[in-house]
Specification:
heterodimer, A: 93 residues, alpha+beta, 4 strands, rod-shaped, B: 795 residues, mainly beta, Jelly Rolls, 5 domains, eight-stranded antiparallel β-barrel, eight-stranded antiparallel beta barrel, 9 helices, 43 strands
């Protein structure tokens, strides 16, 4: 336990003051160096909405117009090259 | 670097906290950055006082791919002699991030954000994940003002479904209703801008949202036409396999605009990728450029005035735009209402084959709750239950389907009374208690605003679901989000303002999240019973998170018992072990021999594995909804692992709770200080007689590979126990269905003598003798060898 407390002392004593030296960059672990499109962590979560909201107008029997809102499958899902990110490709927990 | 395991690894982490290289930032003053490829600078910090209403962190750099990470209260990990930092580990610590593919990043934290801005120290880590060096500057600015939000309109980026000439139509137009433009295209632009300004003002949102504005030839005929369509461009959710703790409710779909609001950055900053174009946009709204043609609805055209058209039933552009864009902000449920897509009422999952959101049998990942539907209730008489929430294998699909037709009947004549209660209600208090809710003064549950849920008998005699409008609309008369909203031309969002709040648009001070505290125990998944892991506290660490070590006992593909290990900190309720030099966070060891004092256990650098155990909100996880676990739902966790090419997400629960421990308490992980490299987990459980003890022994097996066995017995008053040591002889692979029963074969004996327990947290001690025969001959044998606890004893 003493060793642990001693290990924390530099942090505790230095925490209240601004350092006046430029920080030194550190190396990332190898797993992060092999970066390629699709492996960036948050890149992996995006999925297209399954549906869209559609406002329609319909002429009624009395000649008036009625507007309503309905949901329809997202037409982008049928487009070639739909912008869907690969999910979980290359990511490790 | 190949690290020693067990005691050596724990001791190394204990020393690892002594090299914190924090660098203070002055508000508004830029500091220079110079980052080689694949490097990071940890723990800049800024101290924020209680007067701050926003904290903005900016990186502006050139070269490389610089990303930005922000954490409140305690620092990020740093490289030192025994800790290796990966970008994944930085993500685990980050409370906010901005990780676009550019080197220009920004995060703005507000008191209303997911992890609220409050007084104290905020740590910043800058990563260059690119393959070239980067240089630039970092600025942190705390201010006492709240930023003003905006919905930026993108009238560019045309495509096959987006005709941008709609907005540049030079046809002369007469100014109308305050819209002074004199061309049709500019009037449309002005009207759309007015609509979005109304939304921003009424939501009082500080968020910066981008909307892709499109025209398209959507056609129509003399009697009907599509006027416009819109929606969220994408959805996100948060799960342990994705190291981005970013959303208030885990395992739950959030629309892109709400994600941006909650995370204080742009969509490309949150989700990565290019910041140009639609990749950085949250909503798309498309208007029918055929409206106004003589053969469509008699040539009726959009009314483009700012002030409402006094003519009810006109094609009021601003009303339509506000309604549709509100759907895009997240007023949009994902529970399935279309029988052709899957079971009615099913939650949305992922078809991983096609990377699409899907339902029913097409789902190979999930399903997940969604944040809109998470605020709904099913009302029956005077009682109600959540619309979403805990269930096993979609067992409540039918209840949701019934709620979706619980409203008044729609007949072939199309009549519908919009003011009547339905069984589908909005549960969140913000809307329930709002004076906008015409039922707010009524007794519960009549005060819960109803959602559109008609019993559709327009074409059938039985009550059919109306997939089109159900769920994502109100029924309150005159409300903008009423499915039939043409009865008056509106400029007021109505119920949508309080209803959007719990989706991510609240302006109330946010409550800091409370993270789960893990229980040191043996954890297992009841659907993979026979596998499990020993999870023990190494030591408490208030700076980087308490250090735990995990021993995953399992079986190889041929059924041979094997085990793996991980050591690291629990950060915000997530066990995020430190990587080995090859990036593996779950490691396998190799022994040089099995003779006492000469085990020489080293990490097998050729093995690749990883593990994360997330103790937060596990009851929301699909992994925890494949078998009945409701009674113990508060003590669940999700263990996500990879071993070689295998992956799994298991819902685990503690085999023994702290309340079941015997007194004196000998629970913990034990090892031999004179023979480091093997050990055992001891479960010491109170009973009506002598305490029951269970030991999982991890030791070198044949060919110096790690293997395990178990023993059960009782602990006598003098601290001794002698047990048969057993090995599972028909172990099953991690992806295989478990057999009805596992076969245990006696392979030897294990006896322990435990010394009287010292007070406090001092290590417990004793001696052990083990004789474990190998299946093909030979054995692992130790006689009266000194043992002590490696884990911190329970108090």
């Amino acid at each position: 336990m003493l060793r642990r407390l001693l290990a924390l002392l530099p942090f505790l004593t230095g925490a209240g003051a601004y350092a006046d030296t430029l920080p030194v960059p550190q190396s990332l672990a190898p797993a992060a160096q092999a970066k390629s499109p699709g492996t960036k962590v948050a890149d992996l979560q995006r999925l297209l909405a399954p549906a869209i909201s559609v406002t329609r107008v319909t002429r009624q029997r009395d000649g008036s117009l009625s507007i309503d809102c309905v949901q329809r499958p997202n037409p982008k899902l049928r487009l070639p090259g739909a912008p869907v990110s690969p999910r979980n490709g290359g990511a490790q927990p | 670097m190949t690290r020693l395991v067990w005691l050596a690894a724990i001791a190394a982490l204990a020393c690892g906290g002594n090299a914190l290289a924090a660098t203070g930032l002055q508000s508004g003053a830029a500091v220079s950055l110079s980052l080689p490829a694949s490097s990071f600078v940890p723990n800049f910090y800024i101290d924020v006082d209680g007067s701050a209403k926003q904290l903005k962190i900016n990186v502006a750099a050139s070269g490389g791919d610089v990303d930005l990470f922000l954490r409140y209260g305690t620092p990020f990990p740093e490289n030192n002699a025994d800790t290796i930092v990966s970008v994944d580990l930085i993500n685990r610590y980050a409370h906010y991030h901005s990780v676009s593919s550019s080197s220009t990043e920004a995060i703005t934290v507000l008191p209303t954000n997911r992890i609220p801005l409050h007084a104290g120290r905020w740590y910043v880590t800058v990563v260059n994940g690119g393959t070239t060096a980067a240089s630039g500057s970092l600025t942190a600015t705390a201010a006492a003002t709240t930023p003003v939000g905006n919905i930026t309109l993108d009238f560019g980026h045309p495509g096959s479904d987006c005709d941008q000439t709609y907005w540049s139509d030079s046809t002369p137009a007469t100014p109308v209703g305050g819209n002074t433009a004199t061309t049709l295209g500019q009037q449309r632009k002005n009207a759309l801008a007015y609509a979005t300004q109304q939304l921003v003002q009424q939501l009082q949102t500080p968020a910066q949202i981008v909307l892709h504005a499109c025209g398209a030839h959507l056609g129509g005929d003399a009697n009907s036409a599509i006027l416009a369509h819109a929606g969220p461009l994408s959805y996100f959710f948060d799960e342990p396999a994705l190291p981005v703790p970013s959303l208030p409710k885990k395992y739950t779909w959030y629309p892109a605009a709400a994600v941006v609001r909650l995370n204080g950055t742009s969509l490309c900053g949150f989700a990565g990728g290019d910041c140009d174009g639609v990749n950085n946009e949250e909503i798309e709204a498309t208007f029918n450029s055929d409206i106004g043609k003589p053969d469509i609805i008699g040539g009726e055209n959009f009314y483009l005035g700012f002030t409402p058209d006094p003519n009810p039933g006109s094609l009021d552009f601003i009303t339509i735009a506000m309604h549709e864009i509100t759907h895009g902000l997240g007023f949009f449920g994902l529970a399935n209402l279309d029988s052709s897509a899957g079971p009615i009422g099913a939650k949305a999952g992922i078809d991983t084959q096609n990377n699409t959101i899907a339902y029913g049998s097409d789902v190979t990942d999930g399903p997940y709750d969604d944040i809109f539907d998470d605020n709904l209730a099913i009302v029956t008489g005077s009682t109600y239950v959540p619309f979403m929430g805990y269930e096993v294998n979609g067992s409540r699909d039918a209840a949701r389907a019934a709620a979706a037709v619980s409203g008044p009947t729609v007949t072939s004549a199309g009549t519908y009374n919009p003011g009547v209660y339905t069984g589908l209600r909005w549960l969140d208090a913000m809307a329930v208690n709002s004076s906008i809710n015409i039922h707010h003064a009524e007794a519960s549950p009549n005060d819960l605003p109803s959602l559109y849920a008609p019993c559709d008998k327009s074409s059938t005699t039985t009550c059919a679901t109306q997939p089109a409008s159900t769920l994502s609309h109100t029924v309150q008369a005159g409300d903008m989000m009423n499915a039939y909203y043409s009865r008056s031309n509106l400029r007021n969002m109505g119920l949508a303002v309080p209803m959007l709040a719990p989706i991510g648009w609240s302006n109330a001070l946010a409550t800091p999240p409370v993270y789960a505290q893990p229980i040191p125990s043996n954890w297992f998944d009841r659907t993979h019973s026979g596998h499990g892991f020993d999870f023990q506290l190494g030591y408490a660490d208030a700076v980087y998170g308490d250090v735990y070590f995990l021993t995953f006992y399992s079986y190889a593909a041929d059924g041979t018992p094997e085990w793996y290990q991980a050591v690291g900190h629990v950060v915000d309720g997530v066990f995020a072990p430190s990587p080995q030099s090859n990036g593996a966070t779950l490691y396998r060891i190799h022994y040089a021999a099995n003779t006492q004092g000469h085990l020489d256990a080293t990490v097998d650098a050729t093995f690749s594995g990883s593990v994360i155990v997330d103790f937060n909100q596990a009851a929301n996880a699909p992994a925890c909804r494949n078998a009945e676990r409701g009674a113990i739902a508060s003590a669940l966790a999700v263990m996500t692992w990879t071993i070689g090419n295998e992956t799994g997400a298991w819902c685990v629960e503690p085999l023994v709770t702290v309340g079941q421990h015997a007194a004196p308490d000998y629970n913990g992980h034990w090892f031999s200080p004179v023979d480091s490299g093997w050990g055992f987990e001891l479960l010491d459980v109170a009973s009506s007689g002598a305490p029951n003890i269970y030991a999982y022994v991890y030791y070198p097996g044949p060919n110096n590979q790690p293997t395990w066995a178990f023993a059960t017995g009782t602990l006598n008053d003098n601290g001794t126990g002698t047990m048969q040591l057993q090995r599972i002889s028909d172990g099953f692979c991690r992806s295989c269905p478990p057999p009805a029963d596992l076969t245990a074969t006696v392979i030897g004996t294990m006896s322990i003598t435990l010394n009287p327990r010292p007070s406090g947290f001092a290590p417990l001690s004793g001696t052990a003798s083990i004789q474990a025969s190998y299946p093909g001959g030979g054995s692992f044998t130790r006689n009266s060898i000194a043992i002590q606890t490696l884990s911190t004893p329970f108090p």
